[in-house]
TrEMBL record:
SbcCD cleaves DNA hairpin structures. These structures can inhibit DNA replication and are intermediates in certain DNA recombination reactions. The complex acts as a 3'->5' double strand exonuclease that can open hairpins. It also has a 5' single-strand endonuclease activity. Belongs to the SbcD family. It comes from the Bacteria. GO terms for molecular function: 3'-5' exonuclease activity; endonuclease activity. The gene is sbcD. It comes from Streptomyces xanthii. The lineage of its organism: Bacteria, Bacillati, Actinomycetota, Actinomycetes, Kitasatosporales. This is Nuclease SbcCD subunit D.
Amino acid sequence: MRLLHTSDWHLGRAFHRVSMLDAQSAFIGHLVDTVREREVDAVVVSGDVYDRAVPPLSAVELYDDALHRLADLGVPTVMISGNHDSARRLGVGAGLLGRAGIHLRTAASRVAEPVVLTDAHGDVAFYGLPYLEPAIVKAEFGVERAGHEQVLGAAMERVRADLAARAPGTRSVVLAHAFVTGGTPSDSERDITVGGVAAVPAGVFDGVDYVALGHLHGSQTLSERVRYSGSPLPYSFSEADHRKSMWLIDLDADGAVSAERIDCPVPRPLARIRGDLEDLLADPDLTVHEESWVEATLTDEVRPDDPMARLTDRFPHTLSLLFDPRRTDARPDASYAERLSGRDDHEIAEDFVTHVRGAGPDPDERAVLRAAFDAVRTDDVVREVAR
């Protein structure tokens, strides 16, 4: 059986205020084309279909279009909710959608109710484990500790029990939305830490043929049978080095796995550049990034004038501007109290301006600061006299 594993669509999400709706629509088209051209038998979507619990109408319309196009192909789709989704909202109409071949698994109570598909070699049972928030599902699974490992472990016990009761040779696929040990996170995933622990060991999923993971945005292979598809589009500059893709998985008659990465269309590459502003504007090696989405970190000792406008003259798609100036403090390791010792309020204020901007106040700014402090002192004296 041939599966197409994807996750973390995050429909409705922007990238640094740039709408990703057109790019998300292009991805859906690419997904449908891949299903058709590569003769996929089933599509699995491992959570975070939407970017938030109440998505914008444009995202709902795109989701609706995706479901209709997949249903029209006659290829079953199995989908779970992620930590960004509202499980209840995503699961509305699941029974009716199931009749069209779109199988939603959003309830913790249904983890041991697989979608069973059949090929020439027999049955394949698809178990959907939606994102399981430990505090919410603790009672459902009867665990003493509300932790990710405990609730996922209990859910997998139910999966293995159901699988054991099925015909010998039944192959199995688990969809799960979780942070599994060995995976590498990026800045764009929402923290799911509980009690200081976010990750669960991959061994929790022992006993099944393939585990289609969602949550982490980088495509990753934790083992031949346990993989993250990653998000099909970038959602933070920490993903600049990601290759955005889906997994095309073939399960043979014995449940052995072979995998191929299918690249996804990305509207622009991402680039992180760093250095003094003048160097960034002149460096010929950065020509390759002139049409990229750019995050620029300026290291100038003194913050340059109008840096964003100057950067966008060369890099018109600069979306993020950061400052990390080189420091020349005589005593960089001195404590805050030591740095303030013996300095009056006006000097401390001037030091703050220097720290923030990289250069001290000019004469006019010094005059404004001094006038402000004088006014505060005068007000204090007047209030004291009035008492």
